[in-house]
Design brief:
Strand content: 15-25%
Structural class: alpha+beta
Radius of gyration: 17 Å
Helix content: 25-40%
Strand order of the largest sheet: 2-1-4-3
Distance between the termini: 10 Å
Largest sheet: 4 strands, antiparallel
Shape: globular
Number of strands: 4
Length: 156
């Protein structure tokens, strides 16, 4: 088992494009469906695996390109160290003052270690100024507890 780190930051309006953050339904629309529904399904099938947008379900980061992996670690504490560094890096930009607090951020990191050690994933999101959004995720791989069928994007 190992862990991958993911980071996305961008305009909140782009983050809100939920259709591109959901995996496509396993079955296409039935024959005779409206053309715009069929076209939208095709777009999601093509775009979801390639999009850098954070998936609504954290485990689905594993279907994204390996180039989006910001780091890989065999131990939860090392993965949480990366998270600690990213939280410190962005803390001054957090829209909510309470999220800038060192104690608050330390609690998030401690919680991440526990979740990763038990095979879970970690997903955090923060509003930044100018309405922007930061998404940080740590995904357990080999296998993922929530989606064991998803394979490692780096072939590990």
């Amino acid at each position: 088992m190992h862990h991958h780190g993911y980071l996305w930051t961008g305009p909140k309006a782009r983050f809100d494009q939920e259709a591109l953050r959901r995996p496509p339904h396993p079955e296409p629309p039935p024959a005779g469906s409206r053309p715009e529904l069929i076209q939208r399904y095709r777009e999601v099938v093509a775009e979801f695996p390639r999009s850098d947008l954070p998936p609504l379900e954290t485990a689905y980061w594993l279907v994204k390109p390996g180039s989006l992996v910001r780091g890989s670690w065999p131990e939860p504490t090392a993965a949480a160290g990366w998270l600690r560094e990213r939280l410190a890096e962005y803390a001054s930009r957090f829209a909510a003052e309470a999220q800038r607090d060192d104690t608050y951020r330390a609690a998030l990191v401690a919680s991440a270690v526990q979740r990763l050690a038990s095979g879970g994933d970690v997903s955090l999101g923060f509003y930044l100024e100018r309405p922007a959004f930061l998404s940080l995720a740590l995904v357990t791989c080999g296998p993922n507890r929530a989606r064991a069928e998803l394979r490692c994007p780096l072939g590990e």
